[in-house]
């Protein structure tokens, strides 16, 4: 496991939500300290506010990282907006290809490969969410390298 994967795993085990765990793991790239990252992503866990009806928190945390690293900050710059949307859509597609869906409740209610449950057990967790978190970090590190970010 990479250092960021280990950091996300540790935050998850401290009972921080999936979005907080992923965003905080990338503080070295985003410039966010752990507390700020956890404040920003606090409401995005459990499918937004714990509802389990919306997008997975691990995916939300990854999109926050992408937004910080490919920002749209210039009001008149459509290119910035198009880029952050494009990288966000691509990452969402990759996450969905890996897990079959992107919704928190759908992810929790679907049948998971034995390999994912085995990985959760290796991480000393009985919750499948840990796999979404560490895998989102791994996938994001790979994707950022593809984008030319020294991840």
Textual characterization of the structure:
The mean pLDDT is 93. The protein starts with a helix and ends in a 5-residue tail after the last helix. 66% of the residues lie in helices and 0% in strands. The chain has one domain. With 151 residues, the protein is an all-alpha fold.
Mean pLDDT: 93
| Major sheet summary line | none
Shape: globular
Number of helices: 9
Helicity level: 55-70%
Structural class: mainly alpha
Separation, N- and C-terminal Cα atoms: 14 Å
Encode the helix/strand succession as letters: HHHHHHHHH
Which stretches of 5+ consecutive residues score pLDDT under 50?
A: none
Please give a handful of descriptors for the protein shown.
mainly alpha, globular, 9 helices, single chain, 151 residues
Set down the secondary structure blueprint:
Blueprint: H1 3-13, H2 18-25, H3 27-30, H4 34-41, H5 57-69, H6 78-99, H7 104-109, H8 114-122, H9 129-146
Helix pairs in contact: 1-2, 1-9, 2-4, 2-5, 2-9, 5-6, 5-9, 6-9
Quick recap of the structure?
With 151 residues, this protein is mainly α. The chain contains 9 helices and no strands.
């Amino acid at each position: 496991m990479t250092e960021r994967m280990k950091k996300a795993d540790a935050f998850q085990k401290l009972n921080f939500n999936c979005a907080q765990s992923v965003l905080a793991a990338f503080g070295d790239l985003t410039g966010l300290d752990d507390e700020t990252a956890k404040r920003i992503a606090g409401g995005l866990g459990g499918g937004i506010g714990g509802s389990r009806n919306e997008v997975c928190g691990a995916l939300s945390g990854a999109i926050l990282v992408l937004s910080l690293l490919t920002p749209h900050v210039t009001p008149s710059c459509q290119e910035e907006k198009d880029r952050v949307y494009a990288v966000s859509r691509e990452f969402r597609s990759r996450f969905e290809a890996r897990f079959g869906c992107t919704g928190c409740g759908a992810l929790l209610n679907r049948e998971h490969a034995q390999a994912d449950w085995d990985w959760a057990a290796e991480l000393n967790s009985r919750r499948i969410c840990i796999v979404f978190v560490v895998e989102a970090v791994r996938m994001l590190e790979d994707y950022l390298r593809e984008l030319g970010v020294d991840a």
